Amino acid sequence: MTVSSENPFPKVEVVPSGRSSSSDAGLKELFTRGDLWIGTGGAFTVAFAVEAVQSFVTGDPLWGWWSLALLAAGIGVGLWGWWLRGRFRSSQPVGVVMQVANPWRDSGEGDQRESNAREFGRKKCVLVAVTKIVFPEDRRTALLLVDQLVSHTRALKQVMENLSPGASRVELMPIMPLHAGFRAGARLGYTHSREVMVHSVKASDHQNPVFPAVPLRVPQHGAAAPSDLPLEADKQPRTIDGADPRRVALALDLQNRGEEFVEPVMEACRQYDFGSLVLVRTTTGWLPENQETFSGIVDTICDAWRQASLPEGAHTEQRAIFLSGPVAIAVALGARLATANHNSWTAFTFDSDNGSYEPFPSTPRVRK
């Protein structure tokens, strides 16, 4: 992918579906999507309806009754075909690749992720679209562009659902920095007419580089997270000396970096005046890459945030989240935690170039 800063506004591209490109897939769909049976049943119905009428008119009741039986069979085949068509359409998702390209930092990984997402969409979805922006060097315009990207994604999702009314769900494939992913999730929200499944998109070209990770929608029945999740959460917030305790930060160490993660987070909290810190951390450096684990992590983090003993007045103050780990988790957390008050959240991600945390939206330091 070639990126340019000349036109920073979101670009939209429709990707041709390749689901039936192979002869085996095309032959299988010929029998499973229902069109063949609808056509065959319709032909039998018309032909033997005429035969039945002619037989009774010409005085051949035996063949007339046989024609009526074959007419009933034709109707049955046609109804079977319509049922297959409904089932086939309801099993076909639509795909949206939502990308924030960062050509100054991704070292070509963004191209590989985009390629993997496109290929997954072509194979699995009946319709696929890509919408993307280039993350600007001027961070003052970045918030506006990410919000415009989400607006384009919402409109595109609606159009694709109208074009494929029987689609089972929307496969959302985000490719972006973590803090942009949190903001995008907050603006997307979790209330949608169809299920929106956030996928994790890896830069690897090995088997299954894209997999369903976590739904945006909040679980309806309060399903419990797996008991064996490698995750621990603070019950009591940590206090940052000299900062406002009513301003609370949530820090996610999802790579088990320990003090290497905590120390720069606490320093950033001091600089940006967040006086209370809720830490959630994994006990292993590697997360099993499956929907059960990712969904369980999101549910557990949301529960930890809701159950934390926050200082009085904290719910009306600015909040922060320090992100690590997969983008899919950041997007889902944005939707679950920040939809109702997205402008009250500042998302931080680690900038390896200068060894500090970068806020989004851009926020001045209170102290150095």
UniProtKB/TrEMBL annotation:
TM annotation in the entry: 36-57, 63-83
Keywords assigned: Membrane, Transmembrane, Transmembrane helix
Region of interest (Disordered), residue spans: 1-23
Entry annotated with the keyword Membrane: yes
Database matches in NCBIfam families: SAVED
Protein name, UniProt field: SAVED domain-containing protein
